[in-house]
Amino acid sequence: MAAPSPRAGVTVLSPQCCLLALLVSQALADLGEFSPGQSVGSLPVGAAAQERRYLLYDVNPPEGFNLRRDVYIRMASLLKTLQKSEDWVLVLPPWGRLYHWQSPDIHQVRIPWAEFFELKSLNQNIPVIEYEDFLAESGGPFIEQVYVLQGYAEGWKEGTWEEKVDQRTCIDQLMYSEDKHGYYRGWFWGYEETRGLNVTCLSVQGSASIMANILLKNTTARTIMLDRAENLLHDHYGGRDYWNARRSMVFAQHLRIVGDEFRANVLRSNDEADKTIFVEDWTRVKAKPNMALGGPYLAVHLRRKDFIWGHREDVPSLRKAAEEIHSLLKKLKLKKVFVATDADRGDLEALRKLIPEMVRFEPTWEELEFFKDGGIAIIDQWICAHARYFIGTSVSTFSFRIHEEREILGFDPKTTYNRFCGDKEKNCEQPTHWKIVY
Ligand SMILES: Nc1nc2c(ncn2[C@@H]2O[C@H](COP(=O)(O)OP(=O)(O)O)[C@@H](O)[C@H]2O)c(=O)[nH]1
Ligand SMILES: [Mg+2]
């Protein structure tokens, strides 16, 4: 659907449109440019009042679903830091246009977070709202300040790591362009009517919370977007805040239900027998070590596609993976293997021949249309998270998120932090165990 252009809006002389135009130009006149020396104290009275401020963000387009989930955790830390000084809320970037979401004929853009995660659970960690609620609440499709985050053109000097942020000229070609009215247009999650009022490039080096000073002191904008937010690092990877944010990312109930039904019907797996009781309120969960048993099946995540195109040494051939699966089934005295994979049709046929007993979650077209590629990926992850034993693919964030889910459920780390080795890989180092900090 094409959004009406502002030009069309101005030529149609309805009273509402003119009032809006007036308000917008007023708002524009009130806005200051980014100036590093500007402090809240020097602003006109009222501008820095205790009004709610909105933090928006986006990630480099080629990044997949599971790295994006990681960037959310970094933004949650920043929001926590901001909240110590002012009332801030994180606006959840709608999902869409992801490279891996290739199912044809399904409209996969402007997807709200509630389709994948429980908003109530997220809100128990930090205040969050969906983008559409932001539009309603903030009164219009304008983002006052867009900061495009980038590294430093000169890189960093060896041995002198310091955390810093500086306004710099943009290194890459800007993905925003100014329209006739001086508004910035670009990719705002498929909301074509959204525009930025200011776009500035910032070179950043450090953890997410280094942005706090800029947001609190160097700008009075109430709505601020950090684009390319993956340039910021974790405040403290694996620390308490990290895990609180991670634990708050509870999968949406409708996806859990489908995963649980599949577990029950196809894998004879249920929470009571598996000792994986799900508690709705994550703040009250504290898994005892090695508490979970898991369902009577082996789960594997076989990442293919772009992971094999580069002939990576740490990714196995299907034959090697099948050998490993059979040897694990024997060792673990299990009969069933659940396979989560992004393999193409050819690879799937080959897999079926190599592992005839393999079980997969294969959605009907209706299910795919309803849950979308992101939902199917979550159902796969949920089923993998409940298995007696899991083995994943080297440095896949899809596999990493399964590790975390199993950690939350209280599995013995030996049954979780495993990965396939490449056919000729010499030092097949296994994934790191990240223990929950409660
Ligand atoms: N349903 C499903 N999708 C997968 C699986 N493996 C990969 N994908 C898709 O491919 C994407 C991989 O990108 P990403 O999430 O960034 O993980 P990474 O690239 O493996 O680190 C996922 O988000 C899914 O869309 C799988 O086992 N099941
Ligand atoms: Mg990826």
Automatic annotation (TrEMBL):
Please give the Gene3D superfamilies that the UniProt record associates with this protein: 3.40.50.11340, 3.40.50.11350
Which GO biological process entries does UniProt record here?
Answer: fucose metabolic process
Q: Which GO terms describe its cellular component?
A: endoplasmic reticulum membrane; Golgi apparatus
Write out the entry's keywords from A to Z. Answer: Carbohydrate metabolism, Disulfide bond, Endoplasmic reticulum, Fucose metabolism, Glycoprotein, Glycosyltransferase, Golgi apparatus, Signal, Transferase
- What's the catalysed reaction? L-seryl-[protein] + GDP-beta-L-fucose = 3-O-(alpha-L-fucosyl)-L-seryl-[protein] + GDP + H(+); L-threonyl-[protein] + GDP-beta-L-fucose = 3-O-(alpha-L-fucosyl)-L-threonyl-[protein] + GDP + H(+)
InterPro entries (UniProt xref): GDP-Fuc_O-FucTrfase, OFUT2-like
- In which compartments does the protein localize? Endoplasmic reticulum; Golgi apparatus
The task this protein performs is described as:
Catalyzes the reaction that attaches fucose through an O-glycosidic linkage to a conserved serine or threonine residue in the consensus sequence C1-X-X-S/T-C2 of thrombospondin type I repeats (TSRs) where C1 and C2 are the first and second cysteines of the repeat, respectively. O-fucosylates members of several protein families including the ADAMTS, the thrombospondin (TSP) and spondin families. Required for the proper secretion of ADAMTS family members such as ADAMTSL1 and ADAMTS13.
Database matches in PANTHER family: GDP-FUCOSE PROTEIN O-FUCOSYLTRANSFERASE 2
Report the sequence similarity comment from the record: Belongs to the glycosyltransferase 68 family.
Question: What is the name listed in the Swiss-Prot or TrEMBL entry for this protein?
Answer: GDP-fucose protein O-fucosyltransferase 2
- Look up and give the organism this protein is from: Pelobates cultripes
